[in-house]
Structure formats: C-alpha cells, structure tokens
Structures
1.
Amino acid sequence: MPKVEIDGERCKGCGLCVDACPEDVLALGEQINLSGYHYAVVVNSEGCSGCAQCAEVCPDLAITVWR
Amino acid sequence: MKQVVHRPASLTDKVFHFCPGCHHGIVHRLVAEALDHFGVRERTIGVASVGCSVFLYDYFAVDVIEAPHGRAPAVATGTKRVLDDRIVFTYQGDGDLAAIGTAEIIHAANRGENITVIFVNNSIYGMTGGQMAPTTLLGQRSTTSPYGRDRLRDGYPIKMAEMLAALEGPSLVARVAVDRPANVRKARRVIRRAFEMQVEGKGFSFVEVLSACPTNWGLSPREANKRVADEMIPYFPLGVMKEKDVVDVL
C-alpha cells in the first residue's frame, strides 16, 4: 500500500502539501515541532495513492513517498 | 513498495533557512535534481547572488562562489572561460538580476556564454525587507510603494525573459512556475533542458522561475502560493520564449 511520511522537524507548516493532495490525506497538526511550526501530519493514510504531488510542492523536502 | 521521492545527492542535509512556503526550496531541489541527472555534481560550480539565495553554499553539495551583488553572470563568465570543463550556473533573485545586475545579465546573454542562469522572480526584495523591485506588479504594495506600484511614478514591471529572448545570444530562454505539482513537473523539464544545453556546449540558458514570498507579500503561505497563479502568471506568461538547438559558429 502506498505510504507517505512527513519529517515533522523539517516541516515548516506552510500547508502547500495539504492543498496539493487530491485525496485529503494530509492536514496541519495540532502539535508544534522544535522550530515552533504546526507541522503537517497524515490524517487519512488509507486514501494515499502514492502520487507524490505533496512531495512535488514541498519546499523543505520533508516528505517521502513509497508506492 | 519502493521509495519514489528521494533527496537529491546534490543537496546537503541542512534544513533551509527560507520562510515557510517560500519557493526557493523547490527551485533548489529542481536544480539539484538536474545536476544529479547529468552526473555533474563533482564538476559543478554554482555562483550565488545577494539575496535570500545567498546561502547556496550551505545547501548545494557543489563548489559555490559568492558574487558581488548582481555580478553573478560576470563571475560565471570568467569561471567558465577558465575552467571550461565545469558546469557553471548562477542562481539569482529579481532584486539581484533585474535591478543592480541588469547590465551583467544582458551582456552575458548577448555573448551567449555557455552558462546556465536560474532567475527566481518573486516580485519583491525578499532579504532586505520587502522593498519594491523592478518586477513588482502594478498596484502591489511593498515597503517602498505603500500605496501600490504606480506606473507613472515607478514604471512597469520588467519582463526579463522576454527581454533576453529578443537577443541573438541565448540558446534557451524560458519562464516557469512552481506553484502546483503540474507546474513543478514542467519546471523540472525546463531546468533539466537548461543544464543539458550547457552540458552539450550549446550556449547560454536562462530559466525564470516565478516564486512566492509570503513574508513580504503579507500573505499566508497558501494565499501567496495562490497569488502566483492569480496575479503573477497573467502578467508573466509561462513558456519557452526561445530555444535554439545549435549555436551559430560563424
């Protein structure tokens, strides 16, 4: 099954991946990381098709995708 | 199951200092992927400009020269002429390339130097705190145009890609954006083509990348990303303005 993983410490919570995801797999979380950002989290891992659109627009290379 | 997204080997592990939602990170990744693709990391020299992209040497696993403000194409010219087996690219913002460095970019392009120029246009001065740049859109507010850019007082936003495409020298002139996945994929192809030009000795290649600057635009990262499509692309149309396959030898 395709899998998406977000490096919470690299993420700056810009939300571009949330907008890019066609399946609403990602959202900005409640937790903050060491830099003080609400980093993106996976909220609907079953919906992930591994298209990697989130990783295409991530400015901080915080996203890894397997499929 | 295999990993489909990899960190390019031409980037170091360092976390970017860029603001959340800044497109510099995406452009860095695309350039690094192009260097990986052609296997030229070991013989690449980057020329950094003054602006937010000044820390190129921290993020790229290649040698980097720090050029005086706007002079990256001149420094790259010298570097490439002395070390012609190296891949030399400049990475400049609009405050650098389109303002203080206008003379250098025009003449490097006109000479058809065999270098690659990556021009990140975010329509504002980023690092210095959001002043009006030559590329600032009409009506856009900045710290030095608090009531919006006025064409009578400040002139029109400058279209560098169109300007350089009018010259004989350049082999590839294009404008791309990285605001959504489809545009990122197009930008990847164009940036790869730009480096291909240089690897094959075909002359000067120039890629303008429209970029968001959420902090200085006073927008959230997601709003700023949307502004690229809504306001920048209509004025700065995307596409390949010029592509020449063979360098004139006469």
Note: The first helix of chain A runs from residue 16 to 20.
2.
Amino acid sequence: MKEKRWFPVMYMFVITAIVSTAVIGFSQYTRERVQANMERTFEIAVLKVLPGMFEPDLSFVELHKKFQQEIDKPTDKTAGAYTLRKNGTIEAYALPIEGQGFWAKIKAVIGIEADKKTITGIVIYEQTETPGLGAEVAKKEFTDQFENLKMSAQDKPIAFRRAGEELQDGQVHAVTGATQTSTRLEKIINDNLIQWLEKVEN
Amino acid sequence: MKQEKAAHKLLQKQVIIRRVLLALLPCIAGSIYFFGWRSLAIIIWAGMVGFFTELIFARSRSKPVTEAVFVTTTIFALIMPPTVGFHVLTIGVIFAVMFTKEVFGGFGKNIFNPALAGRCFVYICFPIAMTATWSPPADGFGGALGKWTTADSPDAITGATPMANIKAGKLVLSSDEDSTGKIPFDITEGNTVKLKKSALLRGLVTGRISGTMGVTSAFLILIGGMYLFVTKTASRTIIISLIAAYAVLNQILYWSGVEPVPQAWNAVLGGGFLFGAFFMATDPVSAPRTEPAKIFYGIIIAVCTVVIRNFSIFNGGLMFSILIGNMFAPTLDNIVRYFKEKKNKQPEIAA
Amino acid sequence: MTNRQIKQLAYEGLWKNNPIFVQVLGICSTLAVTNLVLNTIVMCAALVFTVSLSALTVSILRDFTPRNIRMMIETLIIAFYVIIIDVILKAYWPQMSENLGPYVGLIITNCIVMGRCEACAISNPPARAMLDAIFNALGYSFILLIIATFREVLGMGTFLGFGVPYFSGQYWDKWTIMVMPPGAFFVLAIVVWTFRTVQMSQEDKKK
C-alpha cells in the first residue's frame, strides 16, 4: 500500500484532517475566553477610570460582560468617550486617548466627571517606554495622582511638575529621569483633553 | 606607531601615549579643583580596572599591556559626570576595554574609540546617572581642594548643565542690564533665567560650570591640546578641519535663524567639544590615516555633531558623531587610496 | 533502553551538542523572551512540551510516513502542538501571552524542534526520540534561564518579580539596557563564550 501513488496524498489528507479537527475544536472551546481576553486590557482600563466600576475579584469574562452591559458606547454627542449613565443621565466619561511616546505609541483611557472639570483617573494600558524609566508612568504610583484631580483653568488642563515641587490644581509629579516620556505624555493628555472639551456636548 | 617587541614585560612603553597622558594632566587637575578629590579616585580606579581587564586578555596573547589603556580609562573618567557611581564606572571601563578593544584583537585593531564606545554604552545603560545628576563646581579661590566631592551640597544632584538648560530654553542669553552674572545651577521648571553673555563665556573658559568632570574648562583643555598640536602628537589636520567646519556650520545656521543653534563661540567652547576635537577625534587608531581622508573625517563629525546636538533628544552629540566618524574612517581611507593609485597610474598610460 | 544510553543522551543534549552554545539554534527566541525569568520559564516549558510531543508523534508515525513528504508531516505536527499552547496561553494566561508576543507561535520555526525531529525522531523508536528531545529542550532551557537571571537581576533588580538585595536598592542604578533587546546580545555572547571556553579546555585535556 505504501508504494501506491495515492498513498502520500491520502496520508497527508488524513493527518491534516485529524490535526485540524483537534485545533478547531479546541479553539472553539476557548473562543469566548480568548475574545474576552483580547479586549480585556482596554475594557478593564475603561472600568478602572470610571468611579466604582472595577471589581478586582471578577474574572475577565465577567468583566467583559459587565463592560458590555453597563458602559455606553461612544456617540457623536460624547465626542468619542465611553459613558457611564444612571437613569439616562451621564455620570462620568471615559475618554480613550493615544499619541506618540518616546519609542512608540502610548494608549490610555482617562476618566472625567460629568462636570468635565475633574479627572477621575487614568490607566495607561499600552506603552513600550523604556523599562524602569519611562515605563514607570504606567505604574500605580504615577497614575494614582490623577484620581480626583481638578483640571487647571489655564490653557493646559494638566501640567507635569518635577518631583518634590509643590502642586496646585491640575498638576502632578513627573517620573524622575523620564524627561522625554513625561513631556510627550503631558502633550498627549492635554491635546486630547482640549480637543475633547471643545467637541463634547454640554 | 613604533611596535616594540617586549613579550616578557608587563607594560609596553609607548612614547606617544605618554605625551597624551601628559597633555591630560591640566584637565585632571581641573577636575580635582572644581569637583573635589573624588575625581582623582575615579581616574585611578578607572585606570586599575582597565589595566586588569587588558591584563587578562594580554596574558592569553602573551603580550604586554599597552600604556594606551590608561589614555582610554583617563579620558573615559574625565567625560563622566562627577557624581558617577563606581559600579557605572567599572562597567563602562570593562566594556570599553573588552568589547571595543580586546575582542577586536587588542591595541591598534579597534574600529571605534574605546573611551567613547564605553561612554556611549553607559550613556544608554544608565541614562539617569549619566544625564540627570550633575554636581555644581566649587566656588572660591581654593576650589574643591579641601573637599572629597561637591555633590553633597544641598542643591546638588538634580541640576542640569548650562548647555542642556540653553537647549531647553530655560537659560536665555541676553545683554540686558537685569540679567544675572552668575550661571544658575538649578532652574525651576517653567522659569527662564537671563544670563549675561560674558558670564557664560567666562564660565566656559575657566570651567567653573557644572558638567562632566574634566572637560568643563576650555582653557585647561587648550593647554594640553596645544601641547599635542605643537608636538604633532595629534593630527593637526583633523583638529583644524573639525573645529573649523563645526564653527562655520554653526555660525551659518545661527545667522540664518535656525533654532536652537547657538553662536559659533558658544558651540565650540561648550559641552566638551574642544576636548573631543583634541583628544578623541584624533585617536590615531580609529581615525583615518591618509591626509585627505582626515579632512573629510573632521567634516563628517562636525556635521553630525551639529545635527545631533541641536535637533535630537540626546545631549551627547559629539560622542555619537565621533563614533559615526570612526565608522567611516576605513572607507574614507580606501577611497583616498583608490584615487591616489589612479593618479599614479595615469602618467604610465600617458608614457 | 539502558541507563548508559540515557546518560549518553543527556550528555549530548545538555552539554556536548547543546542547542544554544554548540549548535547555535533557536537564537531569536533566546534573545526575545529572556528579559524576565518568568517569561523564560514559560517559554522553556512550552518548548519542552512541543519538542518532546512532536518527537514522540513523529517517531510513532515514522513507519507509515512516506519519505518524500516527511518534512511536511513534521511541520504539521509541530504546528499543531504550538497552536495548542498558544491558545491555552491566550485563554488562560493572557498576560503571559502578551509578554511572549509572537514568540510562542514562532516555536514552529524554531530550528531545535525541526532539528530533533529530523536528526533523531524520524529514525528512532518513541522512547529514545522523546528522551533525546527532552534533553535538548532542557539544554536550551538552562542556558536561557542563566541569561534571563542575569538580565532580570541587572536590569530590574528583581528575580521572578521579587527584589534582590543590593540590586533593587538605591545604590544600584538599574541597568536598563539589560531588559531591552540589545542587552540580550551582550549576555548571550558572554554566556556562549564562557561555555565554549570551558568546553574547549575540556576537549584539550582529553587529547
């Protein structure tokens, strides 16, 4: 049988069929999880910046469901921001922002209260800044500063200050040594915020 | 360079290298005077680490250690910030001697200037240690001669060099009456300080500014540099073409209003440019050997320095430029030789 | 199989014919995933899994597989196991899946896997094929772990995420380049250099 001409073709076909069936079956079985995981960094970022939405005990799949049920998709009126509503009135916005960092794009979500004057939080969910230096901006120590941060009324809503300096409204301490990342992140945040504040419907 | 056969000796004597070391003495003295005795400790430590690194490799080749290693380590130490940690220094020296010199086959076979390659390595490895912490120079007539280091004064550690401040627009040169005569060390974010031109000039010449250990004073560099220049230890062609091209290019760009290019005098005197021109670009091993190639070599470095210093995010413009120049050196030599051969052949054909 | 044969296989895979410092195979993943020890452990586990099971499967099928299409069959089998791992990571450990990026999928093209299938599994019984594959994968793993340890400790001051005394302290300026791709080149070069030197001096003594 092995000498027959059709044998290699048949053999290849059978092996391929077996292997593909196994792979397809397995990926079908895990499809929902994989899908939830793929969107998870962004969705968790949105949930985290909105007050009281993120529950650390939930699994990714549950968070994915929560996101789909409770967060409203962006519309023209919100100028690209996701919204959290209660009985139809907007409680808070979650604005996805992005821009060029030191090495590559920085992507983040920034949470803003309904009065559009206070920041509820920021999560930087995608960045490839220098590890140990610029990458520190994604860490809690830095992003915690944005919780309940009043925006400055001047032309720059958010300003980065050198570590140790006294802070006023709309100011945070930059990460020491990460001059380039800080300058760029500051610009990304301000450019996006200013643009959004102009567009969003009051 | 004369190659002596001295397999049994520990250290190989090299006349030219001794001259370079002698020429470095004013800068070493300056580093101690401005930033304290720690500078001397750094230079000696760098020399020891370099010597032992080369010793290991020299042993396996059964050759003596070349004195050139001390030039490498001393120059390397002098272009470090005075606050440099000893581990950063050690890593840099080991890298400089091992990866840029020994793995290529030892003295005379390296492509890149070892001191600069080492500095480039630590610059990328330890950006905070290399760019964010500077200590102020000591005041007064006695300088820092009575001190171990100037880095322990309270306002130290997070200042910036005048060059960096000017580039960032925080330090503005002006001839107004109200501008300050003292170079500020630490400028608060968002503020600008007006500085008298003459004050900056004086700072750059005497060297009483914050910066790398031994390269702040144009005057001290020129003492050593002129010695090398007069004794022809360093290639005059490279020095002249590099400085001239750099000054001319800066001045032209300044006149045509390109921001943030400074005036020629400021650019030439600042940021250790002279030190690079006299001591590093002229390194006979990594520079081209033919005279016409040396001219182009100087011009390439000058152009790259202007571009990197003014338009990139890095401050170490000259460092990268000399390394880029090193890269082109063999090719430049080959091109020059190719044209020379062509010239030599032509009369034969005619005859 | 006798004990002696097993020892011989171990010696070959771990030392004499080590995939990294003798055969210099699988270098792209070596450079890419060794920035953190945890990433490396997962990558090594994935490789041990793929290599051993591929070799086993190829060896079981060796009497039926026609010679002219054996390479296609081998690739297919390898790809199958790699996809399984990839999907498992994506579904149950997404963070790790992101850290390793495309390098899990690239195990398919890792020369060690194909090399073991071709060199050993296609012509040897299952037990021998699998042991050979495991020892080779372990030879790869221990070199990777050495590299990763140096890179993580020097670059981040941590080991498996826990702070290492001195290196996580304030006196050590974090050696940033070590956790970035260029750092891997230096560490890999030094490690290969060291091991080759030891190996060569051993061989000289034998003569």
Note: Strands of chain A lie at 71-72, 82-86, 89-100, 105-113, 118-126, 149-150, 159-161, 171-173.
3.
Amino acid sequence: MSRKKKTALRSGGINPDHFNKSQFKFLLILAPICFVMALPLVFIFFNAFKPIDELFAYPPRFYVKNPTWENFSDLFAMASDTDVPAVRYLFNSIVSTAAVVILTVVISVCTGYVLSKKNFRAKKLLFTINTLGMMFASAAVAIPRYFVIVYTGLQDNFFANIIPLLVAPTGVFLIKQNIDQMPDALIEAAVIDGASDYKIISKIVFPLVSPAVATVAITTFQMAWGATEASTLYIDSEALKTFPFYINSLTGSAGGIAGVGMAAAATLILFLPNLIIFIIMQSRVMNTMMHSGIK
Amino acid sequence: MKKFLNKHSVPILLFPYAVLFILFIIIPTIAAIGLSFTDFNTIQMPNFVGLKNYISLFTNDSVFMQKVLPNTIVYAIFTGIGGYVLSFILAWMLAQMTRPVRTVLTIIIYAPSMTGGVMLSTIWTVIFNGDKSGYLNALMLKLGLIDQPVAWAQSDKYLLSIMIIVTLWSSMGIGFLAMLSGITNGNTELYEAGYIDGIKNRFQEIIYITIPLAKPQMLFGAIMAIVNTFQAGGVGTALSGSNPTPNYAGQLIGTHIEDYGFLRYEMGYSAAISVVMLIFVYAMSEGAKKLFSSDD
C-alpha cells in the first residue's frame, strides 16, 4: 500500500498508475497491432459457426449471419476412416494432457528444489546442463528420439503421448529461479522441526512457488494439448492417437469441403481452453516471469 | 525404509528428471552425433564413413546450399531477430500503459502464440486459401490488385514470406512475457534518478536504464526466440501441405532433416544435418549470452 501512495502521482513512464495523454501515442500504435493480431482468431471463431453455404460464399463474409452448431455436431458425428469416433481422440488428449501437466509440475518442483536449496558437489554443473537443455531443439533429433521410443517399448503405446513430453528444462529453470527467492531460513526452520525434504516440498515450497507452478502448468498445457508428434511418429493404433492429430487429418485429404467448417470448430475447441486458462492465470504468470532472468 | 528415503533425498528427487533428460535429450544428441559419421539407412547395419556426410552436405547437396541454408538464414533473421526486436518494442510500449489496459492488450498479443502446430495451419489456410473464397484472394480481387486467385501457400514465390508472417504473428510467447515482466517491474526510482543525471529522452532511457535493468529477462527471451526459430521448421510443410515444400521454397533446416530422415530413410545424412542445426542453435545462444551477460 505504501508504494502505491508514494507513486500515486505518477502517470508517465514505466508502469503508470493513471491514464495520461502521454500514453495515448503508444496506444495509437498498439491498438492497430492488437487488431491485426486478433483478426485471424476472430476469423476462425466465426468460421466455426458458419453453415456450409456461408463457408464457401463468394465474396466471403467476415462475420457469420446464421450461426449454427452444425460444424461441431458434424465433427463429433464423423468417425475417422478407421471408425474411431472424434470423442475418443478428445478423451485421449484430455487424459494425456492432464498426466503431462501434473507429472511435469511435480518433477520440476522436485528438481528445482534440489537445484536451488540443497548443497551437493555437482549442483552448479547440473544447473548449467539444464540451461543448455533449454537451448535444445528437439526437432533436430527427431530420428534418434524415435529409436529411444522403440527401445524403451513406448512405440504404439499410449504412454508415448506422455513420457517424451515430461522433459521440461525451461520449467525446471523457472521453478528453480523462483525457489531461489525463498528465504533459506524458512527451510532451515523446517529442518530443525524435523521435516524431511519431501515434507518441505509439499508443505512449504509448493504453496510458496504456486505462481511459478501455475506458469509451468500453463506452458506445459499449451505444449501437450497441441502435440501431434507422438500420434504422427510413434503410435500406429488409431484409438491411441490425440485430438490435434485428428484435426490434422480433417484439414488434409480426408476432410474435403465439409472439413473446413469442422476444422474451424475443432481448432476452436483446442484454442479456447488455452485462452481461458491464460486469462485466469495471467497475473501469476507475470509474477513468475520477473524471475526468469539468466545471468 | 523411511530413513533410507530421507538420507538419500537428493538423488531420489533428481532421479525422475535425470532419467528423462538422459533418455530424451542426451542420448538422442549423442546418437545423432554417432549416426552422422555412418551411412545408416534403417535396413543395413551402419558403416562408418567418416566425414563423408558433412562433406557432401556442404559440397554436393545443392538443395541444402541453394535453398535450405538461404531460406533458414532469411527466416531466422526475420522471425528470430525481427521477432525479438518486435517483442521488445511491444513489451516496452505495453509497460507504458496502466495495468488494466496492459493486461487486456497483453492477452491479445500473447493469444496467437497459443495456436502452435495444427491450429496454425487451419487458421491461416482460411486466409491464404488458393481459390477465390480465400479472404486474401477475395480482398485483392475486389480491390483489383489481381485478376485471378493466387495459390499463396503453394506458390514458391510467396511461401517463405507467408511463413515469416505467420511465425511472427505467433511468436509473442513466453519470451515476450519475460521481457514485459522485466521492464514493467524495473525500479521506478532508477528512472527518476536517471533523469536527474541528465537523461534527455525516452530513447536514452531505453538504452541506459531499461535494457540494463531487463538484461537477464532479455537473455531468456533471446534464447527462447532462437530455439523457437529453429524448432518451427514445420510451418512451411503445414501451410503448403507438402514436404518437400513446392520447389523447396519453404524448406528450412528442420524440414530438410525430416525429408532425409523420415521420407528417404538416409538416417546418417539426416543426423549430420541435425548436428549442424544443434551447433547453429548453440552458437547463437552463446552469442546472445555474450551480448546480454550481466556481471553482477
């Protein structure tokens, strides 16, 4: 509160409290940029609700005149070539995404805690290796990764949707940086009270770094919810594949004319959870990113 | 049992992540390096061929030298460096807004970055659709700029530019948020002190205060930008619907790896391209580190 009082008169510069006409020129630049950024998303929103004659109308109309749920019902009524219903893909996606998010958070907090608060010889080295891991472009080694999948028995296995996605160097990094902000005294006090590391993590660290946990959960959700790698490369059984993969097959050859509306509907189903979760969590994300710096 | 768990908590807590990291990052990298010295084709046992793959990559592979490398460089300059500068400017301007305005605009700018992969191609094919019902074609026909619909995404003339636009649109991700947070949370007293010390305008303010203060977040943003640039190789394939892309116009180093690895099964050769790509990413990240290193 005191900070607010001190800066109550500030209406210019970084992070102002009030609107001032000096901000107007920036708004004048930002508003059109935001408009352009939002436009494609608005297109797809309208397209998802367009009946088929409006989808292929010439000239194309931007907004939808007679909105319909047809595309959504078509999407779920249509089974793929191999008779797997769309709901099955959606179910696979929900289960695997939930598993990836929960496991990534738990693993990242455990690793981040050890790398931040425990003292052992290789600590610095391990953190450096993790930072190098952030620079790792997994697309470069898709083929050796494929062999790892084959040798670990994950090929054509539902867990191929989950396990390869659990390595999140950026997540470990963000959580470690945020645990660094916790005073050591807090943990020392818990140790004196006889708490084990597991208890410290679940009772102290986890609640205190919840903004960072939320951030890692969101970014992991975005990545896992849209992932097609496993369905394309590692899994052959149609019944084990995920929803984004199904959309891909709609927009491709199988979809044809009816595919456009269904693909828009499916894209909306994929996109909206991302957007809603981010809107709810955005202030926590911004707090976490404050400590994202690499020195 | 409990005593054992408590005594060895460090290795136990590190174990799951360490195993995953070794399995999916370290082993694939080592395997790629190993395979790059062989002629592995998935059918016969791999033979050691020395540097042959690397030599033919840089001397024989005309597609790589004439298309892939120039495309990758152009793409990296526009989406990597351009996208990075753009996200800094946007973050800086957003930091000048009051909190509610900033929040709304940030959500709009960040939203496209949540549409990776599949969503990207459905969204943009509506706009760049090749027949006259595509938005861009309809608009340009109406304005009289073209006489016939253009197959934008399938045309070797426009594909790379379209890829750059689409990638820029969706690149205001976590790196952008990091920079926004770094700038917004800068110490306002430092800015006041700066003006007392003779800073005259907003440009000097950015150079002498904002950038030094936000340096660590800017390095994080830079590394994210570099990795995403190379990671996003699939965007050309997704938009044009084919790999190789029409006349190799949208072929990037990532798509070249897939082309040789998954389509031609020349695994050894593909692995050599992977190693070159990893070296690129690493070298650029180290460069960014030098640029943004803070000594405190």
Note: Chain B is about 70% helix and 0% strand.
4.
Amino acid sequence: MSLDLYAEDLVANYEHPHNRKNMSDCDSSSHEYNTTCGDDITVYIKVKDGKISDISFDGSGCAISVGTASKLTDAIKGKSVSEIESLGFDFIVDLIGIDPGPARAKCATISLKALKHAVFIYEHKKPDSETERL
Amino acid sequence: MVNIDSEEIKKDFPIFESRKDGQRLVYLDSAATSQKPRAVINAISDYYSNYNANIHRGVYQIAERATEAYENSKKEMAKFLGAESYEELVYVRNTTEAINLVALSWGEKNISEGDHILISEMEHHSNLVPWILLAKRKKAVLDYIKVGEDYRLDQESLENGLEKNPKLVAITHASNVLGTINDVKSITKKAHDKGAVVLVDGAQSAPHMPVNLSDIGCDFYALSGHKMLGPTGIGALYGKREILEAMPPVIGGGDMIETVEFYSCTWNRIPWKFEAGTSNIEGGIGMTPAIQYLQKLGMENIFKHEVELTKYALDALAEIKNVETYGPDMKKNDHGGVISFSVNGVHPHDIASIFDNYNVAIRAGHHCAMPLVTQILRQSAVARMSFYIYNNKDDIDKAVEAINEVKRIFKK
C-alpha cells in the first residue's frame, strides 16, 4: 500500500462528499455492501434521453469508498447509460489516479458497482459478469 | 522471573529477518494468528523430510516414529494445560471446530426444547454462531451475560442468567476485542452449582497466560494452535473424560472405530473416537516445539510482558487527541495484550492501510464479534493492535508514529 492512495483530493471528497443525498424521485437505485470494511453505499440515478441527468449516493464507509463515490458521482453526470455499461476497474484507477491494490479494490469499486446495477435495473437487463466481479 | 527479551526472541522467527523498503515487520496482529519460530517450521519440515508416514496404522519404523511424535504432542499439550490425561484432548482444526464439535455432539444429545444456554455479549462468532444454530434446531433459549460500561462482564447479569438454570454456560476466557480476561474459575464454580456444563473458549488465553484446567474446573476448553506459535489447521478440544466418553461421534470414518460390521460398528476409545480419517499429523507434530518454546519463556512471564506493553500503549494512546480505546482499565490485572481503538472520523480500514505503509500490521473490522462491536461499542468497525512475545516498546512507538500520520492525512 502506498500513501498515495490517500491523496488530499480523495480525503477532501471523503470529508465533504459531493452529491451525498437520498433521492426519493430517482428513476433507479442500487445498494451495495462490502463485508470486509462494512462499506454501505446506495447510488441513485435519474435518466433523460438515455443520459444521466442527475446522480447521488448515500451511505457510509471508509475514505476510499466514500471519497471515490463522491468523485464518481461528479464524473458521471451527462454520460450515456450505454457508456456506463462498459465502465470497469480501469475507470476507477483513472478517477482516483492510482491502483488501490487488492486489499482495497472493493472499497474503490463499490460505488461503480452500485451505479452499474442501477443502470442495468433501469434498462431491465441482467448485469454482465464484469460488473459482478467488480 | 525471566524478563522477556523481545529482540532476542525476534531472532528465532524467520519472518522478522525480511525487510520491506528497509523496514522490519512490526507485527501487532497476534490475536489473529501468531508468527512461527524456526523450531516449529523445522519440525514440520523434518517430519516430511525424514519420517513422513500415516499414524496409528503402519508397523514400520517411520510410521511408529510419526505416531509417537503426534501423540507426544498431545501429552505435551495436556501437561501445558494442566489436563489429567492426553486422552482428554481431541485434535481438531481450530477453536471454531472444537466448539462446533461440542454443539453437534454434546449439544444434540443434551439440549432440548426450552433449555437455556448462557453465553456473553463479548463472544467471538466461534462461541456464538454454533449456539444460535443449536438453539434454533432444538428450540432452546439463548441468554446473554451483558458487558458493562467498564468492558467487564456484568455480575448481576451473570447471576440473572444463572438463575434460569442453564444447561450450558459457554464463555470466553479472554476477549479478542476488549482484551478483558474473565474469571472463568469463579464462573465455572457458580455454573456448576446450578448444574450447568461449562465450556471455556481459550483461543485468546492459552497462548498468553498460565492456564490450569484442573484448577479452572471447566468441562470443555477450546484452543487454536496457530495463535500459540503452532501451525494453522490444528487446534484442540479438551473435555472431561466422563463427558467425552458419553458423547456420540460426529464424523464417522477410519481410525474412530473399534470394529465395523456391514450394518453396525463400535467406537474407538477417546480421544480417537472424535478424530476420523487421517489427522493433521504435521500440525500435531508442530505443536510440540511451539509449546516447548512457550514453556521455556514461562507463561507467567509472557503474561506480564504483554500487560506491560498494554499499559505502555494505553498511556501513549491516552496522550493522542481524538483516539478512543475500548477495554477495561489496567487496575484489576484482567486486561490482556489486546487494544481496540479508533480515531474519530477515520474508518478503521483506512487506519490499517496507513499503518501498512509503515510496515505495521494491525487488524481492522468487526473481529468476528459483530454483536459486540456494532451493538455494544456502537462502531461499524474498530482497529486493533495485539501483542505477543516478540513485540516490544519500539513496536508500539512505531504504531504511534503511524497514528500520527493518520491524523495528519485526515487533519484530525
């Protein structure tokens, strides 16, 4: 583990997360739980013309899971649902600027997994195997 | 009394020879598993290199030697624990399996609908889940001894639990989260007066303090070898002879029988009745040097050493703002070498990750005691440092340095 994982930017996103709210009028949502850290994240989305018009998350967890969820929700606004379907681990590495390593990978990907599940639910599709492995 | 010289002891453990980024491993997670001395590693290698054979079967020399080495380890362990005979020790995989064996054999036979089983709120899942399962199967009632605000067992709650005349009292000797050492001798006496059978979870006591089962008087005692310098996959269940003899076997197969006909069989003597199939021979053999190593140091000395380190660490942590610890005070000599802690506003897994950068290994999570951590401590997780013979004050200083880094990163 390198301390680079705890970049000031990520820690700031953990301390003051963006888009952290419950969204009762969302079009779809999905909840994920990470048993190792106890991270508990729900992602809510609104979709308009095939694109994410609004997104938020709620829940609690470690700095990696909450900080990444905050950054993810910022980055995802305006993206098309088909684009989100193809996002994987590499997207998270780009987003936080570092490979979190095997011990913390689940923390870093939990919000992406919840987002992708919410999208698949919206589209009445079954999640693909790559999403399930996140 | 011999002082524990941790620097000398470290030399007996190959893992401390390696360096990561120039830093030696600071291992503060012995409550999860201990490191292994060279003597244990060599004994296992010696068995496979020089006398590998199955036990209790062959009549050739290496088979006899293997059988003797395996059985001898039980004799060593019986002496170590103050058991009357090695026949009262069943080798199993670990504490969890030992307790499950009691639940599946003794419990199935002796627990009926409406019976009470008394355990405590500070139990590890290994001494909790088997009783939840048994209580469900038998429609029995599971009662809990409360943990008080001082992180000790609440005495009134214990008395109330005993008033219900439980059939079984199953209690941990030392908490893997709080470090609390329970007075299992007194609990056993009180429980026996009510006619209960008593099981003591010794996973965190056998490695760290003198244990004399004849003195404690409990009916069952469970331990894991890997927490006391031995290999993984070997543990022991102690049971009083007459109780073990009356218990039915749970797993059938080779070695646990006396005679087998096509439609019936008779059981082997204890402890073999409970050890079906080829045993973990290397595990048993590895326990002999582990126990000898501990005995050479002296369990009283080991306990004193760990208490001293715990005091030192608690004093250091008390100086740091925003750090909370969870465990009894050090006034009653009932707090072993475990400190659970948190840094306000920082998730314990982030603490453990930052510690890892200093090559300091600690554990973070619910420590397989979810009800205690989430409902009593009201935390989703806590960080934990635990001490053993190879730790010294320098290791704790390193941990304090890592905590200060946590505080710097999170501006706490």
Note: The first strand of chain A starts at residue 28 and ends at 34.
